[in-house]
Each structure stands twice: as C-alpha cells, then as structure tokens.
Amino acid sequence: MELTLDILSFVLMTTGGAFVLIGGIGALRLPNVYTRLHAASLTDTMASILIIAGIMLQAGFSLAAIKLLAILIFLLLTGPTASYAIANAALLSGLDPQCDGSTVGAADGDDESGEELRS
Amino acid sequence: MIEVVFGVFLLTLLVITAVAVVRTENLFVAVMLMSIFSLLMAANFFILDAADVALTEAAIGAGITTVIFLGALALTAQREKRSPNGRFATLGVISVLAALMIWATFDKPRLGDPDAPVHQHVAPWYLEQTPELMGIPNVVTAVLGSFRGYDTLGEVFVVFAACIGVLFVLSAGQGLDRGLFAPDPESEGLRHHLIPKVVGRLLVPFIVLFGLYVQFHGEYGPGGGFQAGAIIATGVILYALLEGEASALNALPRSVLLGMVVGGALLYTGVGVAGMLLGGNFLDYSVLMSDPVIGQQVGIVLIEAGVGITVCGSLLSIFHAFAAREAR
Amino acid sequence: MELLGYFNYWVFAIVFAIGLYAVIAKLNLIKKLLGLAIFQSAVFLMYITMDKVEGGTAPIIQKGIEGQLYSNPLPQVLILTAIVVGVSMTAMGLAIVVRIKEAYGTIEEDEILDSDHTA
Amino acid sequence: MLDNAIYLVVSIAILVTMGLAMARAILGPTVYDRVLAANVFGTKTVLLLSVIAFLYGRPDFLDLALTYALINFVGILAVLQFFQSRSRTEAKEAKD
After folding, report:
1. What is the mean pLDDT of residues C106-112?
2. In total, how many domains does chain D have?
3. To the nearest whole angstrom, how far is the Cα of C88 from the nearest Cα of chain D?
4. How far apart are CA B76 and CA B79, in angstroms?
5. Model confidence over B86-103: pLDDT tens digits?
6. Do C60 and D56 lie within an 8 Å CB cutoff?
7. Which residues in chain D have their CB less than 8 angstroms from residue C57's CB?
8. C-alpha distances in angstroms, A70 versus A79, B54, C107, D76?
9. Least reliable range by pLDDT among A50-54, B35-39, B179-183, D38-42
C-alpha cells in the first residue's frame, strides 16, 4: 500500500515537473506575448494540480494536506485571473494579438513596437 | 549538500536580476524585475532556515512594494533618461570595493559552520531559555517580543514616523481626488473586469483571515505582527484595487487608519508602562500575571497585536497617500 | 566544495556593489531608490547567511525531538524588522521623489541641479 | 530516500523553469513579457516552497507558500490598473 502510494505520487510529481518545464520552455520560445501567456498559464494550472496532488499523497491525512489543498485552490483561482489581467493590459495598450508566422524565430528583437508604444 | 546547490542556483539568478534592474531604462520593467528579486530573496531566506524572515519578505515584497512603486511611477515618469557615459570611474571604484569585500570574506567562517563566533554567545542562551521562561516554541517571536522588546519598540516607532512623514509630504497642497488608484467617476477600480472582480472578492476575506492566523499563530509557527500587518494591508489594497479607492476608504476611513497607527504604538508602550506600574522594568512582562510564564505570553501577544495594528495602518495610509495624489 | 561555503558572501559583496553603483551612478531618482532597495537586500542576505547552522532547522522548537540543532534566531529578528522598516523608508523616499517631480517637473538628478543653478 | 529523490527531481524541474522565466524577463521584448515572467516566477516559487518544505521535513512551513499563493496576484492586478488608468488618461488627452 505504502509502495503504491509512493509510486503514484512519484508519477504525479514527475509528470508535474515535466509540465512545469514545458510551460517554461513555451514561455521562452513562443513568438509573442499572447502565445507565451497561453503556454505558461495552461501548464501552470496543470502542473500545480499534479505536483500538489503528488505532495498530498506523501503528506497523508494531516494539517499539511489541508494547507496544500488551500494552496492548490488559491493557485487555481489566482493563476488564470493573473493571466487574464496580463492579457487585458497588453490588449489595452494596443498590442496586436495577430501573429503572422514571420515573427517566429525572431522572438528576441521583434516587437519592440510594444515597448515603444509606451513611451 | 542539496541545499547548497539550490542556494548557489538561486543566488546566481539573484545577481542576474540585480544587474538587469540596474541596466534597464524602463522603470516599469525595473519594478517588475524587483518583484522577481524579492521572490528570489524569500526563497533564499527559506533555504537558509529563516522561515520568519522569508514570510516577511513574502508578505511585503509580493504585493505592497510593487503597488507603492507603481503608484509612484504613475505620478512621475516611466522612463529613465539615458545616463551619460563616463561612469567608468564609479564602476572601477565599485569593482575594487567588491573585490576587497570578496577577499575579506575568506576570513569569515564558512556557511553553516556551527563553531562560528555568532553562534557562541547569546543565541544558545535564547534557544535554551525560551521554552523555560516563555513556554512558546517560536524563538524568533520570543526574542522579538520579549528579549529584544526595546529594539522592536524602536522599529515600530520608525514605521510610525515613516508613515507620518509620507502623509506630511504627500497630502500637502492638493485636493484629495485623483491619482493612480483614485476614484474616477467614469470607472471605479477594476469594476469592469468581471473575472478579477469575482475572484478578488472571493479572496479578500481569505487574505484577511490568513493575516489574522499569521498574527495569532506567530508564537507557534512562522509569523507575527509585522507579517500579519502586511498581509492584512495587502488584502485591503486588493479591495481598493477592485472596488476603487473610495470604497476602501469608506470601509476603513483615514481617521481609523491614523487611529490604528497611533493606537498600535500606544498599545505597545502601554504594555511596557503597565509592567513598570506593576513593579517591574519597562517592557518586563513577567509581572503582568501572577505566573511569570503566562505573563510573558500575555505580554508577547499584546505587543505583537500592537505591532500588527501599527504596520497595517501605516502601510494602508501610505498606499492611500500615493493613490490620492493628483498627477501633474 | 570548501569554496562553495563562501558563495553566499560573494553574492552579498556583488549585489552590494551593484546596489551601491545604482545609487551613485544613476541619475534617475527612482532608479536610485531601487538601487537602495537592492543594497538593503544584500545586507539582509549577509545577516541571514550568518544564522545558518549545518544540519539545523528554523528556530521553532519542536517538542519531543532531542538534540536538534537550530539556526541562530538573533539575525533573523534583526532582519525581520528591518524588512518592514525598509519598505516604509522606500515609501518615504518615493513620496519625496513625487514632490520633487511636482516642483521641478523632472526626476533626473542633473536636470534638477541645472534648474537650481539657473534659478 | 526514495521520497527525497522525488522531491529533488521536481525541485530541479522547477528551478530550471525559474531560469527560463528569468531569461524571458530579461529578454523582454515588451513589458508584458516581463509581467508574464514575474507571474510565472511567482507560481513557481509557490511550488518550490511547498516542495522544499517537504524535502526539509518541516511541513508546517507551508504557510509561506500559502502567503505567496494568496497575495502574489495583487501585484499583477495593480499592473492592470496601472495600464488601464494610463490608457484612460491618454484617451482623455487625445480628446482635448
């Protein structure tokens, strides 16, 4: 029983770790703000669920498990809200959500326009 | 071993962030990087076994610092003008200074050395005596509240003075109407944004509740008045962001905030004076009750409450002072 | 491996120097305050580095565990209060910067000095 | 031992992601990328702190992660407010 729980939590946590990594790579590699936001936020929620579920299995039924549940709930509430706020702020400032393929691969110096727009 | 590697990685990121903060010309970006800097600091404090300090950095750095800096940026400029070249002399002197300091560190005890001089004097006594004299597990709270009560009283008065200073500097010569988070007849706060509004409204009570938990659980786990005051202030700032500053001021008017700032400091001093009246020294809690251990506990709870009230009131007053200032 | 024991102090020295550089060399007053905050954090880091004891844990005494080492509570107390005082002081500085902006119309040090000389 | 190995794998993944987010925060190019990076950093710190709390065997320090989970997004909402109020003043100036 103990071993099954260990293996299960190991699987959950490694997949969670993989999701975290995918989100990080997506946030670095994708071409513009909106796509990066998509990668980061989508994997953020999934990774949080998996990792915290994994830790909860290790914690057993204790106060720590309840705190972890609270952390998970708050992360699931605030994460998407923060993503919404960022996307909205970007949209308000007139950053174009359209991405025409040509900017892919030139992610480092492409849309300085967004920053120039601000000054 | 593991923690050393974690620490090295996080500290390297910390240096990179610090360089980026100084190099960037967009002040808004600098503030965002500063919030990352604070997160890294908190993680480092946690790895270095300082849970209370990490909690303080978390409570202050994540919300309040960013909000106050953004409020100031909205009132000033968002871009730095390009600094003139020819700062090589400064850079040279600073590099020499850094090199000298690094050279000097080789005389310091290694990280985590149990024989280091810092660990030889009062610290073991604190760790040994706290359970006997106060009966509370968190030694940091015990030292903060009782052993070094004078020190903390001084810090509370510094926060108090800073708050009064900000109010003096910022409320002079203006009507109290417009600013970054100010009531605007066209739109109050983030009311148009349904998602933040719903989620935020849900979270405000939890943040305040968690702040109270940190306040009163400070004797048993990481926490205490400083952290709790900051967390509760963050909760109210969230409310002000969502509903507009006017609603927050309706809920907690300026007079109440000022009363909190003054009242907290007075509560702290009052506990000290009560000790004197009962025949002990200033800030000696043992005489408050017939049992000295219970007396110490009562004293610590009271002064922590005073600290929390003052910090919460000060941070909120500062926030409102920045928010109400009209941009010119 | 021995040398890694000093790494925290090196980082302290470097971050300290970076903050000091920003305070001295940058002309923008808000940048100076950010530099001051970095400088402050470097000092916090040094104090907290000193509190660490190998094999120790945070100084919250656990019942029923004998011989557990705890980290030094004293630097933690000093820094805990210093963080809150630091943010109040930063706010005070920002308040003065806001007033300077209103009086001079700029927050660049050289321009402020120029307008003082011409006046 | 096995437990520690699990926590170690996850925490290394989180640390690497923090490094990637840091790269995004420094590369930019727009300010929203930096805000996004700060947000990613925040959630990763919450996860890292919870994992390390268990790695050290002191689960009562989860309070820290809980603090971040609760108040990290206040900063992000302040950013939204900042841009909203500025776009409104700009619109007003354009009208005048």
Report:
1. 86
2. 1
3. 18
4. 9
5. 678 888 999 999 999 999
6. no
7. 56, 58
8. 14, 20, 44, 21
9. B179-183
Tell me the domain boundaries of chain B.
Answer: 1-81, 125-328
**B-C interface (Cβ pairs under 8 Å ≥ 3):** yes
Break chain A into its structural domains and give their ranges: 2-92
Chain D contact for B15 (CB, 8 A cutoff): no
Identity of the residue in B51, B77, B112 whose CB atom sits nearest the CB atom of C53: B112
DSSP C74-86: HHHHHHHHHHHHH
Fold classification of B1-81 (topology level)? Four Helix Bundle (Hemerythrin (Met), subunit A) (1.20.120)
Residue D31 lies in domain: 2-95
Lowest-confidence segment of B93-97, C69-73, D56-60 by average pLDDT: D56-60
Residue-range domain boundaries for chain C: 3-53+69-118
* pLDDT > 50? residue A23: yes
DSSP-assigned states of every residue in B192-247: T-HHHHHHHHHHHHHHHHHHHHHHHTTTTSS--HHHHHHHHHHHHHHHHHHH-HHH
Please report the pLDDT score of residue B86 as a whole number.
60
Closest Cα of chain B to A10: distance in Å? 19
Beta carbons of A78 and B203 less than 8 Å apart: yes
CATH fit for domain C3-53+69-118, picks 3.40.50.150, 1.10.287.180, 1.10.287.3510, 3.20.20.70: 1.10.287.3510
CB-CB contact of A114 with D30 (8 Å): yes
**Whether B269 contacts B283, CB under 8 Å:** no
Amino acid at A48: S
Residue whose entry in the numeric block shows the structure tokens 């402050």: C40
Chain A residues with CB under 8 Å of B199 CB are 77-78, 81
User: What DSSP character marks residue B115?
Assistant: T
Q: Quick check: A118 contacting B, CB < 8 Å?
A: yes
pLDDT at B83 over 70: no
For C81-97, write each residue's pLDDT tens digit. Answer: 899 999 999 999 999 99
Kindly provide the ipTM of the predicted complex, given to two decimals.
Answer: 0.90
List the single best residue of A9, A12, A20, A63 to mutate versus D (max D Cβ within 10 A): A20
Shortest distance between the Cα of C116 and any Cα of chain B, in A, equals 19
Of B28, B36, B203, the CB nearest to D41: B36
